[in-house]
């Protein structure tokens, strides 16, 4: 494995290896093992053309825990504002010795293009509405840690599927790992190609919840839609928001997930977001171990 561009590229064995490696690295960073020397002398560039809190920070912490040198590059304040292209930016960073490039970009396919231009490994940290593979991997890791398995679990992914890179990466990964996925959304927030995805589709959240082990709530991505298409908060939360009453309709051990950032009161109530059955903070913590695992497996070879 040289790049991580899509969860659809991972075999079951490769995905399980990443999750198992993350489990082994989970102790790194605590008092007894602050750092590992694995990536000493390697340089990781965080190349972010879109805003991020969790992904960029956790990739930086992960790389530093493996002793890599980290360069954080933000399009804002760089020569991108003077018109420099992605290709020229990438070649410039490569000339400075980047061994791995973590890229977030607003264009679907940007990570694939980058992989064709640079010699080092490319890690897709979210490309447009296409994929966000490390988010799906940390979600799978969180489910496996909480519920002990992925095989045979029933997972509902709820909300703005149309604009979600997290949904596609999760559908591809979870089905590879043996889970059954149902997408739940209003028809206006589903892509026309959804019938080709390896999952079921429902418009009725209340019908799906009683037979669901894991529900993943998604944010409605206002920044990717025209203002006139943005649903009213009240209407949306009535049909597709997760609140205490809906949580009560799920099996007792079922969990609620969210990749963040959350919009409390729209797709998730504060009561559910702060409930012990909601894994959102665990997901963030697991993101560091998971991204360490990916950097270790991609860049750790001689
Ligand atoms: N989940 C996620 O990608 O969050 P950020 O946009 O903060 O990185």
Automatic annotation (TrEMBL):
Reaction(s) catalysed (UniProt annotation): carbamoyl phosphate + L-aspartate = N-carbamoyl-L-aspartate + phosphate + H(+)
Residues that, per the record, bind L-aspartate: 82, 165, 219
Keywords from the named record: Pyrimidine biosynthesis, Transferase
Residues given in the record as carbamoyl phosphate binding sites: 54-55, 104, 132, 135, 260-261
One Gene Ontology cellular component: cytosol
Pathway where this protein functions: Pyrimidine metabolism; UMP biosynthesis via de novo pathway; (S)-dihydroorotate from bicarbonate: step 2/3
Pfam families the record matches: OTCace, OTCace_N
Domain Aspartate/ornithine carbamoyltransferase carbamoyl-P binding: residue ranges: 2-144
InterPro entries reported in the protein's UniProt record: Asp/Orn_carbamoyltranf_P-bd, Asp/Orn_carbamoylTrfase, Asp/Orn_carbamoylTrfase_sf, Asp_carbamoyltransf, Asp_carbamoyltransf_Asp/Orn-bd
Boundaries of every Aspartate/ornithine carbamoyltransferase Asp/Orn-binding domain copy: 151-298
EC number: 2.1.3.2
GO BP field: 'de novo' pyrimidine nucleobase biosynthetic process; 'de novo' UMP biosynthetic process; amino acid metabolic process
Family: Belongs to the aspartate/ornithine carbamoyltransferase superfamily. ATCase family.
UniProt function note: Catalyzes the condensation of carbamoyl phosphate and aspartate to form carbamoyl aspartate and inorganic phosphate, the committed step in the de novo pyrimidine nucleotide biosynthesis pathway.
Subunit structure, as described in the record: Heterododecamer (2C3:3R2) of six catalytic PyrB chains organized as two trimers (C3), and six regulatory PyrI chains organized as three dimers (R2).
NCBIfam families membership: asp_carb_tr (TIGR00670), PRK00856.1 (NF002032)
Protein name per its UniProtKB record: Aspartate carbamoyltransferase
Protein species of origin: Nocardiopsis flavescens
